[in-house]
Amino acid sequence: MAVIGWIGLGRMGGPMTKNLIAAGHTVNGFDVVPAAVEAAAGHGVVAKSSIAEAVEGADIVFSMLPKGEHAKTVYLGEGGVFDNASTSTLLVDSSTIDFDTATELHQAARDRGFKFVDGPVSGGVSGAAAGTLTFMLGGDDVDVENAKTFIEPMAGNIFHAGGEGAGQAAKIVNNMLLAISLQGVVEGAVLAQRFGLKPEVFYDIAKVSSGDSWPLRTWYPVPGVVDTAAANNNFEAGFSTMLMHKDVGLALDGAKTQGVTLSAAELVYSRLQQLIDDGNGDLDCSAIIGLVDENAEGLPQD
Ligand code: NAD
């Protein structure tokens, strides 16, 4: 069984390490927040107090951090992974970060003789706990194949998306599509109701018609229509507005570098920003319906 170094034991990293331990691996974990390390130690992570300690003797190191800036600190910073890991250790960054930082980290790893894979995930905290995450991997064929064997206990699906940064590219574009579809669904749900359609009747029609989409089927933003919708739960976050805002922002950052105008992504980004400015960043992103109809059913009232 392998020795795995893990950096970033938050909402995702915590439960992901649990599945690696259940598969028989040793996980040496570090987080800048001691309480996160302590919580992970509760399910068997070996608590380490620095990156240097966490990567020592590891076959593979995973990082699961908030943003590109954190990934840069962890890999490139003083006392970071590149300063301390052995070049025989495979490195996988599973954080969702911007494309430019991901390719920069690949380049920096290559310059120092490391093998590096970008490997963001989809499936949320519940997928992390269930070991059913979708991994999107970017990098060299051999490195990706090697990474897959360690990833399996955490994953339902593993894709080799392509070369350096391809995992992040796939993740960013997927979530941008989700956000744009969601904006369509909330506007559709409000207009359908104003026309006098019963939500459950319109939902049944749209789901087998050309208006169908993943957020329609999974997050229909009216209580009592779809079991998995946050609307049933006063829009308590399944996927928070903050996280969706971050992900659409990554798409817009990438679009700028690539010289593309994404008008629908810009629109939904501004709607998500509005929700955050209104103090609702912790609500589920489908609470965006409140900007179409402030009296939408299920919204928390202040
Ligand atoms: P989180 O904020 O709960 O966890 C991140 C952890 O990284 C924190 O515990 C933080 O203390 C730690 N950290 C930050 N800087 C560090 C450093 N320099 N050294 C060591 N540890 C450091 O975030 P999360 O929800 O676990 O998400 C992690 C990543 O996964 C993000 O990029 C997010 O976009 C992505 N993601 C999250 C979800 C979700 O539903 N939460 C779903 C898919 C992808």
Automatic annotation (TrEMBL):
Xref: SUPFAM superfamilies: 6-phosphogluconate dehydrogenase C-terminal domain-like, NAD(P)-binding Rossmann-fold domains
EC numbers: 1.1.1.31
Keywords: Branched-chain amino acid catabolism, NAD, Oxidoreductase
InterPro entries membership: 6-PGluconate_DH-like_C_sf (IPR008927), 6PGD_dom2 (IPR013328), 6PGDH_NADP-bd (IPR006115), HIBADH (IPR011548), HIBADH-like_NADP-bd (IPR029154), HIBADH-related (IPR015815), NAD(P)-bd_dom_sf (IPR036291)
Active site: K171
Domain 3-hydroxyisobutyrate dehydrogenase-like NAD-binding, chain residue ranges per copy: 165-291
Gene Ontology molecular-function annotations: 3-hydroxyisobutyrate dehydrogenase activity; NAD binding; NADP binding
PANTHER family: 3-HYDROXYISOBUTYRATE DEHYDROGENASE, MITOCHONDRIAL, 3-HYDROXYISOBUTYRATE DEHYDROGENASE-RELATED
Family: Belongs to the HIBADH-related family.
Protein name (Swiss-Prot/TrEMBL): 3-hydroxyisobutyrate dehydrogenase
Taxonomic lineage of the native organism: Bacteria, Bacillati, Actinomycetota, Actinomycetes, Micrococcales
